[in-house]
Amino acid sequence: MIHTVTGMVVRWANYGEANRMLTVLTREMGKISVGAVGCRKPKSRLASGAQLFFYGRLMVRESKGRNYLASVEMLDAFFDLRSDVRRLAYATYLANAAETFMLEGEPNEELFHLLLSAVAQVCYGSGDPRDIRDIYLVKLMDLMGFCPEVEHCLRCGKANEPAMRFVPEEGGVLCTACAPLAGRPISAGALRIIASSRWIPLTKMGSLKLGHYREEIEDALLGFVRYHMDTRFKALAFLDEIEN
């Protein structure tokens, strides 16, 4: 059986003398594993499609329960990422996060387009990739149904005050009357940016500047992700090393 899909390569592993196993996030089939046989040979016509962040159309042949790459048509390869290690690291983080939620054989077109748009802006845009990463996380959590509540106290329903407490285990913010010492303090300005990140168009993610709110936004979001996803994306340690 032959399938033609549009997808992005988010991970690969070499096997055998000239082969590569690809993890591809696709619009039509969700996450799939595809064997690219012979792609590491010098003149292989599959070589371009077996690279990290290849984006294009892939013809996939299914045989005995496994997928094999038959041909590729490149739409983009985001080559500029390879000349900027910081942007490459952030793009890898985005891919790690999307791969965590994209299920095998289950299409999620919204998630696919969120990843594609974010990687394109990290690669080609003028915005800070760190800001794009944070906005992407908000959109990703919103899409998957566990975005933090950042506009009202979760206990009493009071609208945000100048000083609120962000409590990951509660699912968002609490006012100081309900939880004077819980979680960590977070400003109303930071909460407004998190809230607006949910609604900003995908193509404008690079235009929203976090400014001096960045540190408290990141503390809140990354703490929330760690608590609710019980995972630490592989690229995060590398990002920490780059930024620090």
Automatic annotation (TrEMBL):
Gene Ontology terms: cellular component: bacterial nucleoid
- By its UniProt entry, which Pfam families does this protein fall under? RecO_C (PF02565), RecO_N (PF11967)
* Key word Membrane present: no
Alphabetized, the UniProt keywords read: DNA damage, DNA recombination, DNA repair
SUPFAM superfamilies hit by this protein: ArfGap/RecO-like zinc finger, Nucleic acid-binding proteins
Question: InterPro entries annotated for this entry?
Answer: ARFGAP/RecO, DNA_rep/recomb_RecO_N, NA-bd_OB-fold, RecO, RecO_C
Record bears the keyword DNA damage:
yes
Q: Function of this protein?
A: Involved in DNA repair and RecF pathway recombination.
What name goes with this protein?
A: DNA repair protein RecO
Q: Which organism is it from?
A: Gehongia tenuis
